[in-house]
Design goal:
The protein is of the alpha+beta class. Helices cover 18% and strands 44% of the residues. Strand 5 and strand 6 form a beta hairpin. It is elongated and about 60 Å long. Its cofactor is Mg(2+). Keywords: Hydrolase.
């Protein structure tokens, strides 16, 4: 199997939130696709944060594109040359005030939508977390912290209380890891 070839590439726009690129591509059979749009986004990190009391730390925030509030795991983008591990520890501390003395456990690194997006999500498990700080939110962040018993998460997923895909997939990856 051969890959596609980029014939021409230009930016429709660039923003701090991501870029939109327009490519013309040649398929392996010679067919040309004009105006193939690619969303360039930064990689991001997220984590299942589990306290010593076996509660999961969740954040609730408004998501403009979906026009609704979502119960999610803490997440964010690395800043500068920050490692993924340092980025998730910083994001968890800033969004929730929780920290841990243990290293984050890498659960996986996955492309979000490789057909049209360039970014990956890197998912961690953080254990033995405890609240040590107040939130340090960015001016555009409005986040409520929720502690949910580990045993209640699957019911919340089943009934739609938790319906954000990356939270659901991270939970099931962490469950698999913890059951080993």
């Amino acid at each position: 199997m051969n890959s596609w070839k980029t014939i021409n590439s230009s930016y429709v726009f660039k923003t701090p939130f991501g870029n939109l690129r327009k490519d013309d591509c040649e398929l392996p059979n010679g067919q040309i696709i004009e105006n193939y749009y690619v969303n360039e986004y930064a990689d991001w990190v997220n984590a299942i944060v589990l306290t010593k009391e076996k509660q999961i730390v969740l954040v609730k925030q408004y998501r403009y594109a979906a026009q609704d509030f979502f119960l999610e795991i803490p997440a964010g983008k690395p800043e500068g040359n920050e490692s993924y591990e340092n980025a998730i520890l910083r994001e968890v501390r800033e969004e929730t005030g929780f920290i841990t003395e243990k290293e984050p456990i890498l659960l996986g690194e996955f492309y979000v939508n490789p057909a049209t997006q360039t970014n990956k999500v890197i998912t961690f498990l953080i254990v033995d977390a405890y609240k040590a700080f107040e939130q340090e939110l960015d001016p555009t962040e409005f986040i409520d912290v929720h502690l949910v018993d580990l045993n209640d998460i699957e019911c919340m997923i089943a009934n739609g209380e938790i319906n954000q895909l990356f939270t659901v997939s991270a939970y099931y990856m962490s469950k698999s890891y913890l059951n080993k």
